[in-house]
Amino acid sequence: MARTGRRPGNPETREAILAAAREAFAERGFDRSSIRAIAAAAGVDPALVHHYFGTKEQLFLDVMQAPLDPAVVIAGVLSGGVEGAGERLVRAVLSVWDSPAGAAVLAILRSAVSNETFAAMTREFVVQRILRRIAKQLRLPPKEAELRTSLVATQIAGLIMARYIFRLEPVASAAPAEVARLVGPNIQRYLTGDLSA
To answer: Is residue 20 classed as helix, strand or coil in its secondary structure?
Structure first.
């Protein structure tokens, strides 16, 4: 009996769509990126994008999951213990942004800023996959953990905006090691310092 429906696609087509979507979301954010434009950039019919991913929202989720596993990055940062964790965290963040995965992370940021649904989704992702892991692995006091990790997030978010979005000099072109040396102590204070001062 003959099979009906679409033929199974090949992995190269799926990856081409993901690459085109990653670039579109990074340049234009979620709301201003269309399935039609993503399909054109990938050289496929828009129906094929729907076949692989269903909706634009699901495509974004797949793009968001594509670049890296934050648990692996955080584990590397925290494996050295509490001392120096602030500087190691800044180094890790900069290494991600300076890698090919940086474009995908930029897509997440742009989409979260422009779309409340994705802001909520990204916030949940950051809290669950990153901040709570930091608090748990560093054994931060439960009563302070949420405040401390939220303060870390504000510092990192500000650094990302200044360096990669606004390209504020001299921070934008400073060597990653120098940025980590300068910003790391602030992160360390948020993690382990006296917040009552």
So the answer is: helix
CB 25 within 8 A of CB 110: yes
Question: What is the distance between the alpha carbons of residues 160 and 138, in angstroms, rounded to a whole number?
Answer: 23
Provide the sign of the torsion angle of the four alpha carbons 180, 130, 161, 28, taken in this order: positive
pLDDT in tens, 115-134: 887 787 788 778 877 899 89
191 contacts 86 by C-beta, under 8 angstroms: yes
Q: Which pair of structure tokens corresponds to residue 172?
A: 């934008």
Q: What tokens were used for 139? A: 């054994």
194 Cβ contact partners less than 8 Å away, ≥ 6 residues apart: none
If you write DSSP's letter for every residue of 74-127 in order, what string do you get? HHHHHTT-STTHHHHHHHHHHHHHTSTHHHHHHHHHHHHHH-HHHHHHHHHHHI
Q: List Cα–Cα distances, 148 to 6, 141, 185, 191, in angstroms.
A: 51, 10, 14, 6
Regions of the chain short of the pLDDT cut 50: 1-8
Query: May I ask the CATH class of domain 70-192?
Result: mainly alpha
Model's pTM, two decimal places?
0.71
| Domain boundaries of the chain, sorted by first residue | 11-65, 70-192
Structurally, at CATH architecture level, domain 11-65 sits in Orthogonal Bundle (1.10)
